[in-house]
Each structure stands twice: as C-alpha cells, then as structure tokens.
C-alpha cells in the first residue's frame, strides 16, 4: 500500500505529496498575508487592550511597589504570625520611603479599597515618618492606634501580593473578614450583584420588545414589492445612521415632564396638569430609548432571513388545510429562526454593555452595570475593580454565547 | 505592561498634543469657564501671545489623574476642588507651587498673607470661594416660600421634584444639616456609622422626588425646563441665570456649603513654565477681582475684596451675592477635605448601593 502512494509523481517527476504540500503552503501564506492587516489591527486595538484590562483586574502592584520592606516581611512570615517589632520596623521604613517618593496616597488608596477610612492613616503617618524612632510599634500606635488592628494587617498582607482576587470578590459583593474567610459585604453596600441581575433582566426585556416590534416590520418589508419596501427600509435605516447621542437626547425632549408627549396628553385633556407621567430618569426611560435605538439590529437580520422565504410555502400549507395560525407557527416561523437567533443575540449583547443611554435617561433605578464600570473608570479611578466588573460581564456574555451554541447551534445564526 | 499601556494611550491621544505656544486649561464649563476666559485667559493671551485652549470636564481632577497615571499628560493647568487638590498632591501627581512665586498684593503684602486661610496649598492655589446652595423657581410657590435648608426635604409643604448632585459629597452633609445637626458638628456626626445612617435616612425621605444632576450647568437648566421646582446648584450659576436671563429663581443661603476652587499643574505638564506664568498672572489681586464681574464667586485674596464692584451689566452690586458675604454665611458649612479623602470610597460605595436599591 505504502509503495503505491510513494510512486505517485507529478508530470515533471516530483513526488506528488511534497508538490502538493508546497503549493498548499504557498496558498496558505498568501491567505495569511491577506488577512494580516486585519489580524494586526484586531490584535493591537482589541485583544491587547482587553487583555491588559483583564490583567489589571487580578494584578495591582500599587502597594507592593510602595512598600517593599513589608512585602519581604510578609514573605518571610506566613499568615497568622505574630505582628512583631520587625514588622513595624519594615512598616516604618516603608513609610519613610513613601514620604520621599510621595506614594503614601496611592498605597493608602489601595488599602482603603478593602478597609475604608485607612487612606489618611498612611498619608498622616508618612507626613510624620521622619520623626519615627524605635521602638516602632509604640511610635506608630501613638500616631494612630489603628496600626495595631489585625484587620489592617490582614488587608495589607493581601495587598502585598500584586496578584490578587480581591477585586473579583468586591465585584461580587464579597469581602474577607479578619481571619481571611470570604463573607458577603454589609447589606447596605451590596450593589454589583443587584446591578448585574438588573442589567440581564432589562436586556432580556429590551430584546423581547425589539423582537415583538421588529417581527411585523421585517415581515412587511420582506413581502412588499421592492420599490415600496426600499422606501420603508430607508425609514428603518435613517435613525440607524443618526448619532446615538442625538437619538437619546431626542427621547429626553419627548419624554421629560414638560416634554412633547406629556404636553400633548395634557392638552388633549387625557392627563391633568398634576398627572404628568414620569417617563424619564427611571427604568421606563431606559427601556423606551434603548428599545428604539436597538430596533434596527433586530429588523435587519430578520429581514435578510425572511426575504428569501418563498410565499408559496405558507400558501401550500393553507391549501392543505392548515389554519393561518398553524401555517405561521409550523411553516413560516421555523424558517425565520436563524434571523430571530441572530437578532436576539445581537440586541442582547449590545444592550448588556450599554452605557450612554442609561446614563442620560436612567436616573437612579435605570442604571446598568456599565454605568458603575464607567464610575470606577472615571470617578473613583479604581481601574482594577472596573476591570473585574467588565471581566465578569465578558464572562457572562461568553457563557451565554456558549449556551446559545449548545441550544440553537451557532451555525443557525444568520446575519444577512 | 506600563509601556504598552502608554503606547496604546499615546496612539489615541497623539492627536491632541499642543504646541509650545498653547496652554491646555481644563475647567468646569458653562458660565464658570466663561468668567475665567474673560478675566484670565483673554488678558493673558493679549499680554503674552500664548493661546489658551479651554477644555470642559464634569470634574477636571478626573482627566488629570488619568493622564498622569497613564504617563501621557496633555493638560497644563486644571481647576480642581480642595479635597482633590490635597489628595492628588499626596499621591505625587501635582507640581508643587512655591507661594513666593505669586505676586504680592498692591500694597506689598506678600501672597502668603494675602490669600484667605486654606487657599494656598502645597500644590495648588485657590482662585475662588464658591457655595453650593439650593435655589427654587419663585413661580412654583404662591404662598409660603422655602427659606431654610430643611424645606428642601419637606415635600409636603413644598411639593415637586428636587434636583440633587449625584454624589455623596454635599448631599450627605446637606441631609444632616436639614436634620438639625449644627454645621460645626456635621463632619463629626458623618464620621460615625450612626451619622451615615441618619444622613441616608433623611435622603430616603425625598429619594422618589429627586432628579440627579452631574454637571454644574445642568441645575439652572432643570429649573428653567420646569423639570424640578428646586435644586442644589453652585451659587454663581444661579446668579448668572437670574442676572443674564431674567429667570425667576431665588437662592436659599441657609445651609450653604463652602469650598475653594484651585489651580493645579499636573506632574509632567507639557508647558510647565507657561503654566506657572499663567497661574501667577491669573491669581493676582486685580484678576481675581475681575472674575467677580462675570460670576458671583468670592475672590480668594483679601486684597481683591475691595475691588469687587458691579456685575458686567454695570448695574448689579456683586457683594451681596457672594458666598462669603456675612449675611449669607449665618448657617454655612466649610468643606473638610481630610474627611473626604478618607471616606470617599466607603461613602461612594454606600451611595451607589443606596441609589441602585
């Protein structure tokens, strides 16, 4: 058997196997060169920044850089060791260094994430660091007796390794007690889990609304004569081409208390002057505006799937005695499933990460998790926590994608 | 890690790099930025030929910190609050400023004695003293008008929506003042868990009536649109809405919150020398007094007070509209920057949780 394959040669006498490998290799290299620009673009603008961000969620070197002596002491003494004079001496040496390098603020901020109210402990002690004399334990306790708190030392030990899961714990409303066991944070501080749940719930609702609204439109577009359906298509695309910010602020003009919708209802006598409906700065505003903004993402895949479905199938079903509902349910609907899947997945994933619209019209209870990610990116500047929250969101979306693949099959996805 | 971060940020930001004859100054936008442009930027450009790019931010401390930490600074000068000035200075993100480099008062008093207490920080110089007050639309209340801080929380006597800054800072202090805590004890009370609970309990009473704002230009707009009947705001913004646009607004000074705004230069500012020159120029006695011609904020120099005259329209006497006017300070609270540097994270967490719940 092996002899016969070895005997096969090309016209000019080369073994067929190596000639084939050579020409395929060339084709593969050419294909790679063609996609190389896109590949490097995606690598540079997408994979590297996202990788960096995810890395930040588990890696925060602020404290390790500012307090090298303490890091060494923690390395040499396992958890549970007596906090001895050597530990305080290391702390004092680090505080002196922090004063020169002006890093007390950032080191304190890192500890403050896990133990509120300790930031000024570091800045105040660093200010007096030059006057610290042995025995350091007494000297530091004299500045502030919190320096003897076992919780503080637990938190510093945790921050002393740059690789940490603390931020993922915080992103799940969890923390550690002074023995290091994982516990929930106090009731009045729990926010992230609630917001994750709300984000997925609202995104699901918005996806459902988009489907209900888009299905008839897409059907109409697909069945009308081309000239008229093109005109209608422009009406779908026109808002799609308009800036997101413009569309959101237009909704603000429409929905606010003294806005167009309320004014019309009041002038028609449907509402009294005092009965104006609050449609903005709450969840209602977020749902209305986001449904409108995301609608084209549902219409377009549905339309592209519905267009090639021959109307004769439904007619055939009807002629064989199916009621119009049965014909729709058993014949038409199954053929549109790839479009429904694609539209729903697209709208849901976009909705989960939405930020500007809820920020502008969401008020307090219409905020989504992305608004808190933005808060930690821009205001509290706790980028590691922002990265952990974003990482969880990414993981949730990937899990959903996997589930979709298992249940519906990703091959059934059709975007156009 | 750091270099790639710098690389990607630099790719994005290289378009904004300024030439040597330009200064990038970040401030809070709206009529406040306008007052700085009129009183500082224009005369400075006229004198030196250095062009000033005025950039707006909700809070200029945020882009400043982000830029210095990413190692890609385009800001030359930023207008920031006292607690941010102290915090950023602690973290080594600001250039230190020598008070001796600032011009003395016209009578020769050195700058260090001429500025009011707390106005000169290690890394920042105050330009104005401003107040957070609440204001209401006079056409919305026919009978009794709001006059006390407690009235802001009294939705039975004064029904309607309230505008409030979406942050724990100022909202919590205001809630405690309204709950009857004397101004001098507010930060002591807020430092205890019971005090924080008390403040949130007070905020709970109006939670469903609040429209939250984030940028200083929003509250006059919310009042003008009729979206709220009363709102907290920066006193200068409300004054300008009344004086320039004839809006029927009234300021309630009871329970006002006083703070500084300061110039600060980020570490690694691209035009350090020009920024220092501008800082010294804009904080001299005349410039600070000139700014009051454009907005109702008090100058941070004692010697400027006597030079404050009329509003730019040439009619309104500015002194009674200053947050520092004794009549306006009968029940006022001065910002405690140390408190906020310490409890910022904790109270923001609690506030976010409260808001979302």
From TrEMBL, chain A:
GO terms for cellular component: plasma membrane. The keyword Transmembrane applies. It is a multi-pass membrane protein. Pfam families: BPD_transp_1 (PF00528). InterPro entries: MetI-like, MetI-like_sf. It is found in: Cell membrane. The chain crosses the membrane at residues 31-55, 200-222, 229-246, 284-303, 340-361, 381-404. Keywords: Cell membrane, Membrane, Transmembrane, Transmembrane helix, Transport. It comes from the Bacteria. CDD domains: TM_PBP2. Residues 196-404 form the ABC transmembrane type-1 domain. GO terms for biological process: transmembrane transport. Belongs to the binding-protein-dependent transport system permease family. CysTW subfamily. This is ABC transporter permease. It comes from Phaeovulum veldkampii DSM 11550.
Automatic annotation (TrEMBL), chain B:
CDD domains: PBP2_polyamine_RpCGA009. Keywords: Signal. SUPFAM superfamilies: Periplasmic binding protein-like II (SSF53850). Coiled coil: none annotated. Residues 1-20 form the signal peptide. InterPro entries: SBP. This is Spermidine/putrescine ABC transporter substrate-binding protein. It comes from Phaeovulum veldkampii DSM 11550.
């Amino acid at each position: 058997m092996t002899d016969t394959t070895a005997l096969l040669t090309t016209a000019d006498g080369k073994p067929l196997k190596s000639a084939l490998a050579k020409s395929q290799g060339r084709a593969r290299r050419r294909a790679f060169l063609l996609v190389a620009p896109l590949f490097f673009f995606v690598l540079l603008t997408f994979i590297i920044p996202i990788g960096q961000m995810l890395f930040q969620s588990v890696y925060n070197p602020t404290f390790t850089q500012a307090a090298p002596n303490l890091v060494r002491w923690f390395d040499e003494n396992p958890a549970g060791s007596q906090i001895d004079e050597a530990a305080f001496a290391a702390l004092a040496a680090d505080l002196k260094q922090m004063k020169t390098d002006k890093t007390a603020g950032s080191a304190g901020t890192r500890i403050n994430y896990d133990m509120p109210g300790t930031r000024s402990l570091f800045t105040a002690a660093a200010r007096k660091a030059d006057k610290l004399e042995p025995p350091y334990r007494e000297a530091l306790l004299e500045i502030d007796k919190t320096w003897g708190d076992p919780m503080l030392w637990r938190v510093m030990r945790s921050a002393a390794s740059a690789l940490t899961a603390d931020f993922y714990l915080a992103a799940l409303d969890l923390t550690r007690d002074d023995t290091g066991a994982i516990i929930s944070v106090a009731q009045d501080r729990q926010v992230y889990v609630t917001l994750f749940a709300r984000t997925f719930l609202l995104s699901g609702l918005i996806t459902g609304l988009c489907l209900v609204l888009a299905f008839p439109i897409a059907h109409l577009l697909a069945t009308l004569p081309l000239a008229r359906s093109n005109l209608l298509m422009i009406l779908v695309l026109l808002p799609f081409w308009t800036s997101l910010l413009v569309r959101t602020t237009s909704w603000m003009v429409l929905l606010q208390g003294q806005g167009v919708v309320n004014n019309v209802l009041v002038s028609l006598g449907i509402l009294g002057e005092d009965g104006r409906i609050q449609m903005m700065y709450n969840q209602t505003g977020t749902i209305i505006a986001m449904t409108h903004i995301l609608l084209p993402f549902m219409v377009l895949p549905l339309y592209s799937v519905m267009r090639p479905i021959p109307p004769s199938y439904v007619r055939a079903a009807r002629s064989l005695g199916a009621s119009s509902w049965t014909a729709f349910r058993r014949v038409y609907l199954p053929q549109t499933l790839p479009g429904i899947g694609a539209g729903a997945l697209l709208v849901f994933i976009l909705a989960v990460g939405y930020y500007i619209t809820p920020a502008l019209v969401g008020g307090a209870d219409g905020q989504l998790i992305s608004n808190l990610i933005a808060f930690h990116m821009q205001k509290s500047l706790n980028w590691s926590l922002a990265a952990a929250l974003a990482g969880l969101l990414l993981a949730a979306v990937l899990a959903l994608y996997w589930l979709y693949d298992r249940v519906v099959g990703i091959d059934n996805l059709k975007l156009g | 890690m750091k270099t790639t971060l710098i690389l990607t940020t630099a790719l994005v930001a290289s378009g904004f790099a300024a030439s040597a004859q330009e200064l990038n100054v970040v401030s809070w936008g709206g009529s406040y930025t306008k007052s700085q442009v009129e009183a500082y930027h224009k005369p400075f450009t006229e004198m030196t030929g250095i062009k000033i790019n005025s950039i707006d931010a909700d809070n200029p401390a945020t882009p400043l910190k982000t830029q210095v930490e990413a190692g890609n600074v385009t800001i030359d000068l930023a207008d920031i609050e006292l607690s941010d000035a102290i915090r950023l200075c602690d973290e080594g993100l600001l250039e230190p400023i020598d008070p001796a480099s600032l011009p003395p008062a016209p009578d020769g008093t050195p700058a260090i004695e001429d500025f009011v207490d707390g106005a000169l920080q290690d890394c920042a110089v105050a330009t104005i003293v401003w107040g957070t007050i609440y204001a209401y639309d006079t056409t919305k209340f026919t009978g009794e008008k709001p006059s006390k801080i407690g009235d802001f929380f009294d939705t039975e006597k004064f029904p309607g929506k309230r505008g409030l800054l979406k942050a724990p800072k100022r909202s919590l202090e205001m809630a405690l003042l309204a709950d009857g805590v004397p101004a001098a004890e507010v930060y002591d009370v807020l430092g205890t868990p019971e005090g924080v609970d008390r403040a949130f309990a007070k905020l709970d009473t109006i939670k469903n009536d609040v429209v939250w704002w984030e940028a200083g230009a929003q509250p006059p707009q919310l009042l003008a649109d009729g979206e709220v009947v009363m709102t907290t705001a920066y006193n200068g913004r409300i004054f300008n809405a009344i004086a320039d646009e004839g809006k029927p607004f009234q300021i309630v000074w009871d329970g006002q919150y006083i703070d500084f705004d300061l110039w600060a230069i980020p570490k690694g500012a691209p035009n350090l020398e020009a920024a220092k020159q501008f800082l010294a120029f804009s904080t001299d006695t005349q410039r600070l007094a000139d700014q009051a011609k454009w907005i109702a904020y008090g100058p941070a120099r004692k010697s400027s007070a006597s030079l404050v005259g009329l509003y730019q329209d040439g009619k309104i006497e500015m002194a009674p509209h200053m947050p520092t006017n004794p009549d306006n300070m009968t029940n006022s609270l001065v910002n405690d920057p140390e408190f906020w540097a310490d409890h910022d994270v904790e109270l923001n967490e609690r506030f976010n949780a409260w808001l979302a719940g």
